Amino acid sequence: MLDSASKDDQRTVEFRGGGFAPQSKRWVGFVVFIVLISGIELGTRTGFITSLMLPRPSDVLATFVELWKSGLLWKHLIPSLSRLAVGAVIGASAGIGVGILIGLFSLARASLIPIVAAIFPIPKIALLPLFVIWFGIDEASKYALIAFGTFTPTVVAAYGAVDNVDRTLIRMGQSFSLSWFSIVTKIVLPGAMPGILSGLRVSFAIAIILLVAAEMLGAEYGIGAYILEAGSLYDLERLFVGVTILSILGVGVSAVIGLIENRLLKWRI
User: Fold this and answer.
1) What span, in angstroms and rounded, lies between the C-alpha atoms of 44 and 38?
2) Helix, strand, or coil here: 221?
3) Are 232 and 216 in contact (CB under 8 A)?
4) Global pTM value
5) Distance from C-alpha of 39 to C-alpha of 31, rounded to nearest angstrom
6) Most CB within 10 Å of its CB: which of 86, 98, 163, 181?
7) Is residue 204 within 8 Å of 88, Cβ to Cβ?
8) Among 126, 138, 128, which residue's Cα sits nearest to residue 220?
9) pLDDT of the chain, 269 residues: tens digit per residue
10) Going by C-beta distance under 8 Å and a sequence separation of 6 or more, which residues neighbour residue 243?
């Protein structure tokens, strides 16, 4: 009787150790985007949204198709991509290196953090005329502005990520007599990588903003030059095409960083 009663009392307990692992539900974002665009289209067609505020999404799509067929899309997009790639990669690489140095060495921390704290709040767009004076109005000034704007937030993210590495893991490595180099490469850098990659998302978003600002000054082709021309003519369809391209560019950069995360951070699963 006791055995049968104990069996009746037994029940299956669900596993509760998932660790708040996010589930992939990409279709939700797509549905929200479609609903939003459909609402704007309906509002502009019914007159609830005036054309002076927002153009019809269908007209924006038609303008984008026209830009594609004319070949001007690639004339504007390719220079922007090259400027973004060169400037952001230089700034992010230097920022990661300096941030790791600050996180690992006390002398670097004492000497560099005050400088980073001094230049971090400066609006980088305000320095564009200065970069033009230093590097000229050609590509070098645009590369320098994007690199400088990407550098400072990457430094802050990198040394913050190093500081947040679990010190228990470091002490464990020291207790097993691991060398300093092994602790850095096998414990510190892998532990700091999630914070560094999260910081890169912010840094590359800033790089796109600075790209537009740089191309609005002395650039014949580029997304920023295209938006400036459309704005001066008050051509909302072309203006929103440029904004849409920037949004797609930002989503693409975020997706690339996500792929890097999936490859480098498999140990978290």
Assistant:
1) 10
2) coil
3) no
4) 0.81
5) 12
6) 98
7) yes
8) 138
9) 445 555 555 666 665 555 566 666 667 777 887 888 888 888 888 878 777 788 888 888 998 999 898 888 899 899 999 999 999 999 999 999 999 999 899 898 999 999 999 998 888 888 888 888 888 888 888 999 999 999 999 999 999 999 888 888 888 888 888 888 888 888 888 888 989 998 999 999 999 999 998 888 777 888 888 888 888 888 888 899 999 999 999 888 888 888 888 887 776 65
10) 227
What is the residue extent of each domain of the chain?
54-268
CB within 8 Å of 157: residues ≥ 6 apart = 95, 99, 195, 196, 198, 199, 200, 202, 203
3-state DSSP assignment of residue 54:
coil
Fold of the domain built from segment(s) 54-268 = MetI-like fold (1.10.3720)
Token pair in block for residue 231: 């704005």
Residue 9 has which token pair? 């009392």
Chain Cα centroid distance, residue 205: 4
Joined together, the tokens standing for residue 33 give 């985007």
Cβ count within 10 A of residue 101? 18
Task: Give yes or no for a contact between 187 and 165, defined as CB atoms under 8 angstroms apart.
Answer: yes
In the numeric block, which tokens belong to residue 184? 């850095």
